[in-house]
Amino acid sequence: MSPRFSASAPLDSMSEEELMVPERLALSFEVIPPRHDADEAKIDRLLETLESYHPDYIAVTSSKRSGWLEGTTAFIERISRTTSMRPLAHLACTAGSRTELIGWINRLVDAGVRGLLALRGDLPEEGLPEHYPQHADELISLIRQLERQQAARFAAGRLAVGVACYPSGHVESKNEDEDFDVLLKKQRLGADFAITQLFFDAQDYLRFTKKAQLAGVHIPLIPGIMPMTSLRRVERMGELSGLAVPERVRSALAAATTPEEEYETGMELTTELARDIVAGGASGLHIYTHNNPDNTHDLLTRIGVDNDQR
Ligand code: FAD
After folding, report:
1. Mapping DSSP to helix (H, G, I), strand (E, B) and coil, where does residue 275 land?
2. What is the CA radius of gyration of the chain?
3. CA atoms lying within 13 Å on the CB side of residue 109
4. Interval 178-218: pLDDT, tens
5. Ligand 1 centroid vs 166 CA: distance in angstroms?
6. Less CB within 10 Å around the terminal CB: N or C of the chain?
7. Where in the sequence is the signal peptide annotated (predicted)?
């Protein structure tokens, strides 16, 4: 994340406290590598719309559907070639052995990546092969080790390493304490920031960040926001993330009598969620775009984020 500080007064006349006040909300987007038969014009429009917001970075997911890091890297190469956006690659343990992942990290760095989101990935039924990293914490160590070995290549700089975190708890965790212990371990191993899994209640995020701080987490926990465009979408995403959709959200969306009304209700719920967490102190928003530029633009307009002013 690149913090931007208030430029309204000369820097040397500002107190330390004033210097620390972010002038604007950090903004990042998550996109999915397009399928090989994707409509090129749609991808161009997606990237053009997202770029118009000058995001702090654009995160590209990695999944079996997109050929693991093959799809991620190809999309990042395209983003780097055709836009000015700074790409961040999702790197999941599920994508390969330690040796294979080192090869991918090198290729991603060559493609312009200076940030990685270290993830375990969604487990296949049979679990992960033994020679794959088993948890995201191993990936952080792998990245930091590679960085030390190649210090000259990075001109002694660092790769930004992000991790996932879970305001409503990770489905496999025994309890909340486990989630905080894992997050603290990741911070200790060198994670610079975390992006949250989607959540439906502002209080879940605000309570989570407060408890994390008390537990000793000092890295930013960036809220991931999913535009709630329909009940079907919300239920599907809840299912994939192991999250129950609250009755409040379900009944509001189910009460709509047309798809337009459903969209309107969902976007208003999302806007309220985003506004509440920003009012509660979140310093940035990470939008799960699902590669839809119109919904993303609509949501940001409703929240009051204007692409001309960024
Ligand atoms: P881990 O940190 O490994 O945690 C998984 C479980 O294991 C937790 O219960 C944790 O408490 C426990 N645990 C952690 N470390 C250890 C340890 N050392 N020993 C024992 N137990 C441990 N998935 C994809 O496949 N591709 C993506 O691009 C992708 N992007 C995502 C982006 C975001 C912002 C988020 C929040 C999730 C994303 N996911 C993605 C989903 C993610 O891979 C799943 O949530 C996955 O189930 C867990 O990933 P993790 O990195 O949190 O795993």
Report:
1. helix
2. 19
3. 19
4. 999 999 999 999 999 999 999 999 999 999 999 999 999 99
5. 9
6. C
7. none
| Listed residue (291, 288, 307, 299) closest to 266, CA to CA | 299
User: If you measure from the C-alpha of residue 136 to the centroid of ligand 1, how many angstroms do you get, rounded to a whole number?
Assistant: 6
Residues 80-93: tens digit of each pLDDT: 999 999 999 999 99
Tokens of 218: 């000092």
- The partner residues of 133 in beta bridges, in order of sequence, read none
Q: Which of 169, 151, 246 is nearest to 208 (CA)?
A: 169
Torsion over CA: 71, 77, 83, 85 (sign): positive
63 alpha carbon – ligand 1 mean position (Å): 13
Q: What are phi and psi of 283, to 5 degrees?
A: -100, 5
What is the pTM assigned to this prediction? Answer: 0.92
- Which residue in 60, 87, 88 sits closest to 72, CA to CA? 60
d(CA 55, CA 57): 5
User: C-alpha dihedral over 119, 88, 181, 213, to 10 degrees?
Assistant: -160
What is the distance between the alpha carbons of residues 242 and 236, in angstroms, rounded to a whole number? 10
What does the alpha-carbon distance between residue 181 and residue 212 come to, in Å, rounded to a whole number? 10
Question: What residues contact residue 188 under an 8 Å CB cut-off, 6+ apart?
Answer: none
Each residue of 248-292: pLDDT tens digit? 999 999 999 999 999 999 999 999 999 999 999 999 999 999 999
- Ligand 1 near 137 CB (within 6 A): yes
